[in-house]
Task: structure prediction
Amino acid sequence: VQLQASGGGLVQAGGSLRLSCAVSGLTFSTYGAGWFRQAPGKQRELVAAITISGTTNYADSVKGRFTISRDNAKNTVFLQMNSLKHEDTAVYYCALRSALARDYASWGQGTQVTVSS
Result:
């Protein structure tokens, strides 16, 4: 199983980035997906998640600014990030969870997002 995250970078506050996570080695459409982030000195947190059926949920800190989506035909999950803030600076990770599992078992390598204030 491979999860390849991309799309991170340096952006000014108020700007936008779109993260992508390309998945291979499993039947992507049968897995829920999530984006996590970890800032220096802080615990990893779930930012957004999407179920097999497309139901989404978000951390309060990103509601209205971030949108998670998936393209099962391309085996890819996306995170559109708008109105970025300095506090969004972190390494972002994509992860997969099988339909019956509680925890995310497959993880990507992370992509750095830096928002300058």
Remarks:
- The longest strand covers residues 90-98.
- DSSP finds no helices and eleven strands in the chain.
